[in-house]
Description:
The chain is mostly beta strands. 12% of the residues lie in helices and 32% in strands.
Amino acid sequence: MNSIPTNLKQFDTKCCPTGTPNYFSNRPRITLSYRGSVAFSTAAASLLDLQPGDGVVFLQDQKYPSDWYVAKSDDPARFVVLAAGNKTLRFASEKLVQEIARSVEVEEYRFLSFSIIRTKSGYFALDVKHPKITPPQIQ
């Protein structure tokens, strides 16, 4: 192999082991679908202590509209989460998904995922600074 120029740093399996999980792999996350479904990963459901039939509400900061929070709730107007397969909980609200996507300035997506982070107030913030965006399928 040719020698590497000294101004280039090599990245390989010696410094970057394969199989290293990416940012989203083990983090609690919420995934929004362009069709309106809201899915909680197993880690997110555990962090929120959610079971099928439990309720959640989403809260938007009126001063900083791109900041969103989620909390378990027994409010009569809550979203009720249902089991989807054996690993996730979900509900559907096209309006909520559109509001979140618009507020974080994402126009085109198939899926939009956010890690969630526990706040001092007991709510869980969506990490809107680092969304994972799956682009729409090209027909």
